[in-house]
């Protein structure tokens, strides 16, 4: 699985009363990029990947109308979880950097090994 680069324009709805992005916006953008990456890799069901941990460091303010790109890649892949690292850039400058970890869960919400299509997308052939 390689890096995904997703262009995006900051929407007015992504901002708060200060005119800058609301701090939660970057997590939605990262999730959109994550789903794009999985779909590009052939994974069609993205419904069983709840968040376990998230973090973001904000370096530069962003405002409505800013053209940005989100760069996302899998940093660490385990048997039931993956940690993605991501950047939000404007004109090549890092505005936000972050990461989030998702866990594949079963019907009862318990961690379970990746399905074969997801495992293959992550380049894993053996889940032992």
UniProtKB/TrEMBL annotation:
Gene3D superfamilies: Hotdog Thioesterase. This is Thioesterase family protein.
């Amino acid at each position: 699985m390689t890096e995904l680069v997703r262009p995006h324009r900051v929407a007015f709805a992504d901002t708060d009363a200060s005119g800058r992005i609301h701090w939660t916006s970057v997590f939605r953008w990262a999730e959109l990029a994550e789903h794009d990456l999985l779909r590009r890799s052939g994974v069609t069901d993205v419904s069983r990947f709840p968040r376990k941990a998230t973090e973001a460091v904000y370096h530069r303010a962003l405002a409505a109308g800013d053209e940005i790109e989100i760069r996302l890649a899998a940093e660490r892949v385990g048997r039931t979880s993956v940690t993605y690292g991501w950047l939000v850039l404007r004109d090549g400058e890092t505005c936000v950097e972050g990461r989030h970890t998702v866990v594949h869960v079963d019907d009862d919400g318990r961690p379970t090994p990746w399905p074969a299509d997801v495992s293959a997308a992550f380049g894993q052939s053996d889940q032992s």
